[in-house]
Write a structure and sequence with these properties.
The chain is mainly α. Helix content is 71%, strand content 0%. The radius of gyration is 16 Å and the shape is elongated.
């Protein structure tokens, strides 16, 4: 999910190779760090140990923030003038398996945030 939001946020274009590299590394971080923390958080009974639940939730959110910060750093600064990205086209290229209706719904849902 972080990579999907990042792809919508990044204003400058990247080569397909750089997108693939960022996506692979983002996925690796998600699998090896964030998903493990999320699994642990879901195993903690929210009512039996609220401090433990809150602590792992904070750790999970920090993991996602680190991933987002790394993506922004790794994407680098734009080489030329920045222009608004065609988000629909970018989503279609980066997530071809996602049905077009789902891509449109997602973009409509985040439009106020961008």
């Amino acid at each position: 999910m972080i990579f999907l939001l990042f792809a919508c946020w990044l204003p400058h274009p990247l080569s397909p190779h750089r997108w693939a590299r960022l996506r692979t590394r983002s996925h690796h971080w998600h699998i090896t760090v964030t998903r493990r923390i999320r699994t642990l958080r879901r195993r903690i009974p929210k009512t039996d140990w609220p401090q433990g639940y809150k602590g792992t939730l904070a750790l999970e959110l920090a993991s996602e923030r680190l991933e987002a910060a790394w993506l922004a750093h790794a994407a680098g600064k734009p080489c030329g003038p920045v222009r608004l990205a065609n988000r629909e086209l970018r989503m279609a290229r980066l997530f071809p398996d996602l049905p077009p209706a789902e891509r449109r719904s997602f973009l409509a849902a985040i439009r106020p945030l961008l």
